[in-house]
């Protein structure tokens, strides 16, 4: 029986990956950070919580990472842990560097010291390409990160390659483009849209406030991307792979489709606010998955329209159950209203507005 250790087990990707590996007969260990309010709603909702072996660890604490390796003694390590919300990295750039970037060196060094034969997967991201000049991005496209998060991920990506080439560690990276699901966090625009449309359709809210509607992304279905990740570590040699659909759609397209599915005109409900724009916007991303198709024999199965419907249907189902008084694991009722969240960007926007008024 193969053994796998997953960091970031409580996130969207970590939970779906754990389910995939369990179905393949793995013994699955997952690290989690001890906090005052534990957050295991994703593995609970997938029905796998009782099947996972949990290990308390902190990505910033190399001692706890070494202990996690000793306890799990894994054949494969999947590093899915990160401070993954791009916008918050502008608010907490040092945290982004330490948790998303430097921690990967600590994890790789722990593997090198404990057992250099462990296969290691690093979750890289399309955000590393930033606002680039290329219509599509592949494994050879130059990186131009446009956020502290992207810079941190690029560091992690590069250090994984260094350990591969310097210490002969099987370290592979998956450059994943946007991948969504009903387990996506509420802070991400895809889930913000489907949850908002669900609430509006049920009469719980009357507007949805978003940022840049023109931004285009390559949207895929997260569970399918976990299959690609597993295939990456089953290769004979370590390598880097772009995982994407090869299509891009704007945020506005996502919004319109979601409202169309509930028979509403999106323009009556959607507002934009500059406070939700990034200081440096990435206008468009579209991945070239040719290498993954050829070497991994992987390709996406869920198209854009089906993805939006899957997410929207689930959010409507959750809110309906919530209104019926049924308890089940999910995040929306506990997520704060964005009007309560004050960011550096929103504060600077308010100051500029005040200054214009005075003038």
Describe the structure in your own words.
The protein is α/β, with parallel strands linked by helices and 359 residues long. It has 2 domains: 3-180 and 219-243, 3-Layer(aba) Sandwich (Rossmann fold); 189-217 and 250-283 and 304-358, Alpha-Beta Complex (UDP-galactose 4-epimerase, domain 1). 43% of the residues lie in helices and 14% in strands. It has 12 helices and 13 strands. The strands form 4 sheets. It has a 7-stranded parallel β-sheet, with helices on both faces. Strands 7-10 form a two-stranded parallel ribbon. The chain is globular. The N and C termini lie far apart (71 Å). The mean pLDDT is 91.
Write the layout of secondary structure elements.
Layout: E1 3-7, H1 12-23, E2 27-32, H2 41-45, E3 53-56, H3 62-72, E4 76-79, H4 86-91, H5 93-114, E5 119-125, H6 148-167, E6 171-176, E7 179-180, H7 189-201, E8 208-210, E9 216-217, E10 220-221, H8 222-233, E11 240-243, E12 249-250, H9 251-261, E13 270-272, H10 290-296, H11 304-323, H12 344-358
Parallel strand pairs: 1-2, 1-4, 2-3, 4-5, 5-6, 6-11, 7-10, 8-13
Antiparallel strand pairs: 9-12
């Amino acid at each position: 029986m193969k053994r796998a250790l997953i960091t970031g087990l409580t996130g969207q990707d970590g939970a779906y990956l754990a389910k995939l590996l369990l179905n393949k007969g793995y013994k699955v260990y997952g690290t989690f950070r001890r906090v005052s309010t534990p957050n295991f709603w994703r593995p609970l909702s997938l029905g796998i919580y009782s099947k996972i072996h949990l290990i308390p660890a902190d990505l910033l604490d190399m001692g706890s990472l070494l202990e996690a390796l000793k306890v799990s003694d894994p054949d494969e390590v999947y590093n899915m842990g990160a401070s993954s919300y791009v916008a918050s990295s502008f608010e907490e750039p040092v945290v982004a560097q330490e948790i998303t970037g430097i921690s990967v060196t600590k994890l790789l060094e722990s593997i090198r010291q404990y057992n250099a034969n462990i296969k290691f997967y690093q979750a890289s991201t399309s955000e590393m390409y930033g606002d680039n000049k290329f219509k599509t991005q592949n494994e050879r496209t130059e990186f131009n990160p446009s956020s502290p998060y992207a810079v941190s991920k690029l560091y992690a990506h590069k250090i994984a390659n260094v350990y591969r080439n310097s210490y002969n560690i099987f370290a592979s990276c998956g450059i994943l483009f946007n991948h969504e699901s009903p387990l996506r966090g509420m802070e991400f625009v895809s889930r913000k849209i489907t949850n908002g449309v669900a609430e509006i359709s049920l009469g719980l809210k009357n507007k949805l406030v978003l940022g840049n509607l023109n931004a285009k992304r390559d949207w895929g279905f997260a569970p399918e991307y976990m299959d690609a990740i597993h295939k990456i570590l089953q290769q004979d040699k370590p390598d880097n792979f772009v995982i994407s659909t090869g299509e891009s759609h704007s945020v506005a397209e996502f919004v319109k489709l979601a409202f169309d599915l509930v028979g509403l005109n999106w323009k009556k409900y959607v507002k934009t606010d500059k406070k939700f724009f990034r200081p440096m916007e990435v206008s468009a991303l579209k991945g070239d998955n040719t290498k993954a198709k050829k070497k991994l024999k992987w390709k996406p199965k869920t198209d854009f329209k089906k993805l939006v419907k899957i997410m929207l249907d689930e959010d409507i189902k959750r809110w309906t159950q919530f209104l019926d008084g049924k308890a089940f694991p999910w995040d929306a009722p506990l997520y704060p209203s964005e009007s309560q969240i004050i960011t550096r960007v929103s504060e600077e926007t308010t100051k500029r507005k005040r200054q214009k008024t005075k003038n």
